[in-house]
Amino acid sequence: MNKVNIVYYSFTGNTLRMVKAFEKGLQEANVPFKSYSVVELKDDNEAFNCEILALASPANQTEEIEKNYFQPFMKRNAEKFKDKKIYLFGTFGWGGGKFMSSWIKQVEELGAKIVELPMACKGSPNSETKEKLTNMAKKIATM
Ligand SMILES: Cc1cc2nc3c(=O)[nH]c(=O)nc-3n(C[C@H](O)[C@H](O)[C@H](O)COP(=O)(O)O)c2cc1C
């Protein structure tokens, strides 16, 4: 059983709906977890205090992760990603999920290990996507 923490950003709620589906899987797997909005996060070490850290962001200007909170989070914690097990997911509008490819690259260049195939969906996740995420969370929790 893995302790899985989640750090997320969501402005209009699409990414948060993905987070809720992911949390459902963790609850069903009966593993300890904590979710942190990156906007309210006070202690980065607390978020990193887990076996697997899930990160969730929408695409923001020019195919990046969210700019004002998530990009600074990545930057100030760069050294903490070395050998860290990470799972990535998020939502996008019009870019076809290009932001996710850059994020994967960034995380891998920092030395992290992406534990499962990331998930990105357009707009609000439908029930199929939510179910996939719930199952993914269960898999990650018990891997
Ligand atoms: C300021 C702003 C910038 C955005 N930039 C992009 C972008 O570069 N590529 C893209 O595919 N979607 C972009 N979007 C769309 C959001 O990624 C999409 O609506 C997402 O689902 C919002 O997630 P949230 O509801 O969790 O905030 C942008 C939206 C806003 C408001």
How would you describe this structure in keywords?
143 residues, Rossmann fold, 7-stranded mixed β-sheet, Flavodoxin/NO_synth, alpha/beta, Flavoprotein-like_sf, Flavodoxin domain-containing protein, binds flavin mononucleotide
Question: Can I get a quick summary?
Answer:
The protein has five helices and seven strands; from the N terminus they run E-H-E-H-E-E-H-E-H-E-E-H.
What does this structure look like?
It contains five helices and seven strands; from the N terminus they run E-H-E-H-E-E-H-E-H-E-E-H. It has 143 residues and is of the alpha/beta class. The protein has a single domain (4-142), classed as Flavodoxin domain (Rossmann fold). Strands 1, 2, 3, 4, 5, 6 and 7 form a seven-stranded mixed sheet that branches. Helix 1 crosses helix 5. The N and C termini lie close together (7 Å). This is Flavodoxin domain-containing protein. Residues 4-141 form the Flavodoxin-like domain. Pfam families: Flavodoxin_1. InterPro entries: Flavodoxin/NO_synth (IPR008254), Flavoprotein-like_sf (IPR029039).
What is the strand and helix layout of this fold?
Blueprint: E1 4-8, H1 14-29, E2 33-37, H2 44-48, E3 52-60, E4 64-65, H3 70-76, E5 85-92, H4 98-109, E6 113-114, E7 119-122, H5 127-142
Parallel strand pairs: 1-2, 1-3, 3-5, 5-6, 5-7
Antiparallel strand pairs: 3-4
Helix pairs in contact: 1-5
The structure holds flavin mononucleotide.
Flavin mononucleotide (FMN) is lined by residues 10-16, 58-63, 91-95, 99, 123.
